[in-house]
TrEMBL record:
<dbReference type="InterPro" id="IPR023473">
    <property type="entry name" value="AMMECR1"/>
</dbReference>
<dbReference type="InterPro" id="IPR036071">
    <property type="entry name" value="AMMECR1_dom_sf"/>
</dbReference>
<dbReference type="InterPro" id="IPR002733">
    <property type="entry name" value="AMMECR1_domain"/>
</dbReference>
<dbReference type="Pfam" id="PF01871">
    <property type="entry name" value="AMMECR1"/>
</dbReference>
<protein>
    <submittedName>
        <fullName>TIGR00296 family protein</fullName>
    </submittedName>
</protein>
<feature type="domain" description="AMMECR1">
    <location>
        <begin position="12"/>
        <end position="198"/>
    </location>
</feature>
<dbReference type="InterPro" id="IPR027485">
    <property type="entry name" value="AMMECR1_N"/>
</dbReference>
């Protein structure tokens, strides 16, 4: 088991991370441009991974885009911008986010710290603390908050992350599938372009 530290964000840092992700999505969707992080908060100079999720508030709500990675050599501010753009692109959920969707999207950001390569994910996984990333198939990951929100067991959490990676449930037990656990801080908009909370 190996691990490394990452960014530890204050509430103000987390709120700015979500704002930066939203600005990046809007700049990309409306103008086809890459937002620059500008004058960054100190935590945003950390070199660590991050994920961005876009969810539609229309109807019953649905995942509209997700992107990112648990490791990066780039500064956090740039990782958030790139993940937000990728989440809004057609590469994420099959179709690009359109300008008319922007008022109905909520944005969340998960910043990564304490990455753990594990040989025994079932034993090492702490529900509510660890996100899971699967390297194998097409690769897939889920936020640390997801199993708690859905009342999943550790085994179900690992199985569903495998399915997201286009692998069979239980593939996380295969020797050629690499499972990485990561701790993450999750910040999200309570409603589209609304106030921000840490989850």
């Amino acid at each position: 088991m190996s691990q490394r530290q990452g960014a530890d964000l204050s509430y103000e840092d987390g709120a700015r991370a979500v704002e930066l992700a939203r600005e990046s999505v809007e700049s990309y969707v409306q103008h086809g441009q890459r937002e620059q992080p500008g004058s960054m908060r100190e935590a945003f100079y950390e070199r660590t991974g991050a994920f961005v999720r876009l969810e539609s508030t229309r109807g019953r709500g649905s995942l509209r885009g997700c992107a990112g990675g648990y490791r990066s050599d780039d500064q956090l501010g740039h990782v958030i911008v790139d993940a937000a753009i990728e989440a809004a692109s057609e590469d994420s959920c099959g179709s690009e986010v359109s300008p008319s969707e922007l008022p109905n999207l909520t944005v969340s950001v998960c910043t990564v710290k304490n990455v753990i390569l594990t040989d025994d994910p079932l034993a090492d996984l702490e529900l509510g603390t660890h996100g899971v990333a699967i390297d194998g198939g097409e690769g897939g990951w889920l936020y640390p908050t997801v199993p708690v929100q859905n009342d999943w067991s550790a085994r179900e959490y690992l199985d569903r992350t495998c399915r997201k990676a286009k692998l069979a449930p239980g593939a996380w037990e295969d020797d050629d599938v690499i499972v990485t656990l990561f701790e993450g801080q999750v910040f999200r908009e309570r409603e589209a372009d609304g106030s921000i909370e840490e989850v």
